[in-house]
Amino acid sequence: MKSYLLVFLSIFMISCEDISKKTKLFIFDCGLLELEDISNFSLKNTDTDVRDLFVPCYLIEHPKGKLLWDAGLPIEIAGQGVFTRPNGIKVSYKKSLLDQLDEINISPDQIDFVAISHMHWDHVGASSLFPESTLLIQEREYEAAFIKADEYDVFNLDDYFSLTKNPRVLLRGDHDVFGDGAVIILSAPGHTPGHQALLVNLENDGAIILSGDLYHFEISRSIQAVPVFNTDKEETLRSMKKIEDKVIKENAQFWIEHSLELANGLKLSPEFYN
Questions:
Q1: Torsion angle of C-alpha atoms 255, 256, 259, 261, degrees rounded to 10
Q2: Is the pLDDT at 268 greater than 70, yes or no?
């Protein structure tokens, strides 16, 4: 009996090791935001001189499937220069996510899951490219952004309407995407009702937490500044504590998704982390 148990444990450990080794994380440049005034982020304009925010998309390639995390700026503006939105934010997007995926020989129909940190316009821009992918979304976010969008100034259903037709899984908290601890969605409400972050465990590069919009600036993290447009300040602060505790527990790298300074020091696709 012991020999059978030892064989089973050996196979299980090899299987887990193999899965971890094969998990890859790709980062795509999905646009740039240029701000003038940062007071809506509960920051004084003298708190930081940072005004440019990186807009990323990520692909996690796992033996059991492929997950797209966040979908960037509107795909139709890619390669079209600089645009100024009605709120004064300048946006630009050099190469579309579609082209960047093509460079690593991935087509949209190969993406098994789409998970958006939250449904703001700068995170959903390429979502229409993945009509067959299963949407992984917190139930509270789905209700707010799809059913009651008119009640929230921060949501515009037109930005992501195509996702209403996608297969979906409604989440109620943290979710292990592939069931092996390699990719875990972390519920972190407050920025929006169902905002979420992502923990990716890699064999060589270790644990990495993708922040969503828990913070927009490094200074925001230092002083726990909560943007005025967040849907719930107290929830945001609780989520900040939860994720910071997770960073310590997992000994994880914490990537503020919008940090251009961070992005400039990371490996962008076609390079990857594993």
A1: -30
A2: yes
55 Cβ neighbours under 8 A, 6+ residues apart: 29, 30, 31, 32, 33, 72, 73, 93, 122, 258
pTM: 0.90
DSSP conformation class of 130: -
Q: Are 161 and 146 in contact (CB under 8 A)?
A: no
Residue type, 194: G
Who contacts 222 (Cβ-Cβ below 8 Å, separation ≥6)? none
Query: Minimal CA–CA distance to 16: which of 64, 70, 50, 65?
Result: 64
Token pair for 68:
């797209």
Cβ-based neighbour number of residue 105 at 10 Å? 8
The confidence band for 115, taking pLDDT boundaries of 50, 70 and 90, is very high
Q: How far apart, in whole angstroms, are the C-alpha atoms of residue 109 and residue 169?
A: 18
Q: Among 105, 112, 124, which residue's Cα sits nearest to residue 178?
A: 112
Give the angle subtended at the CA of 234 by the CAs of 53 and 89, to the nearest 5°.
25
Of 147 and 86, the structure prediction assigns the larger pLDDT to: 147
Structural class in CATH, domain 23-264: alpha beta
DSSP code string of 148-215: SGGG-TT--GGGSGGGGGS-EEEESS-EESSSSSSEEEEE-TTSSTT-EEEEEEETTTEEEEE-TTS-
DSSP-derived pairing of the beta strands 52-62 and 65-71: antiparallel
Rounded distance between C-alpha atoms, residue 175 and residue 169, angstroms: 10
Give yes or no for residue 172 having a pLDDT over 90.
yes
pLDDT at 4: 44
- Residue 32: other Cβ atoms inside 10 A: 18
Closest CA to 141 of 170, 98, 112, 121: 170
Residue 83 CA, chain-centre distance (Å), reads: 24
